[in-house]
Design brief:
Length: 191
């Protein structure tokens, strides 16, 4: 094979690998949105002065602060940066609240029908004396159409907002819709 043909073959191979990688990311996200278990989570503004950054809003959740006692044995190591699987239970109003948590892998305890495990990462822990830890689930940012974020920011201060999320078997969550007083105002397309 001549040199120009070899270079072209290598370039085409690299392009195919890149396209395959991007395609797998898109298909993985679409798979969660299509087949994941749906849950509703109440939304709370993170910081009213810094809620809107460009074309997305930063979302906070009551489940982002979990009681340290829910985690159980922590083997004495620092929790910050560790994976945590938070077991959520559906309340009578349809929202979910944490009831247990385990570090580094899903709980071996059998889940009830109204429970689901959500995977997150501990983002802050001030020390072993702290009562709560902060957990990020990868659903703290929601992109909105340009110019519509300010209205959402204002409404979040007064009305009830939730997200509808899909959760995969491994606890990975994706936002399916942003709900305002129970009605979807934005829905995520599969692709």
């Amino acid at each position: 094979m001549r040199r120009p043909a070899r270079i072209l073959a290598i370039a085409l191979g690299l392009a195919a690998v890149q396209i395959g990688f991007l395609g797998s990311m898109i298909l993985g996200r679409a798979g969660i949105l299509r087949e994941g278990t749906e849950i509703r989570l109440a939304v709370e503004p993170v910081d009213p002065r810094d809620l809107l950054r460009g074309d997305y809003v930063v979302l906070g959740y009551p489940i982002s602060r979990i009681d340290r006692s829910l985690i159980g044995e922590t083997d004495g190591r620092d929790l910050k940066g560790r994976w945590v699987y938070v077991r959520l239970s559906r309340d009578d109003d349809g929202s979910f609240a944490p009831v247990a948590a385990v570090l580094d892998g899903p709980s071996a305890a059998e889940r009830l029908e109204n429970e689901i495990d959500l995977r997150g990462i501990v983002t802050s822990e001030a020390g072993s004396g702290e009562a709560t830890v902060q957990v990020a689930y990868g659903i703290e940012r929601y992109y909105v159409p340009e110019g519509e974020g300010r209205a959402i920011e204002d409404a979040m201060r007064q009305d009830r907002f939730e997200i509808l999320a899909a959760v995969d078997k491994d606890g990975t969550a994706q936002i399916k819709a942003l709900l305002h007083d129970g009605r979807a105002i934005y829905r995520e397309p599969l692709f």
